[in-house]
Amino acid sequence: MSRTVYVNGAYVAEEDAMVSVFDRGFLMADGVYEVTSVLGGKLIDFAGHAARLARSLQELEMAAPVSDAELLAIHRELVARNAVVDGMVYLQITRGNPGDRDFAWPDPALVPSTLVLFTQSKPGMADTPQAKTGIRVISIDDIRWGRRDIKTVQLLYPSMGKMMAKKAGVDDAWLVEDGFVTEGTSNNAYIVKGGQIITRQLGNDILHGITRAAVLRFAREAQMEVVERPFTVAEAKAADEAFITSASAFVMPVVEIDGTAIGPGKPGRIATRLREIYLEEARKAGV
Question: Hey, is 36 helix, strand or coil?
Answer without folding.
Answer: strand
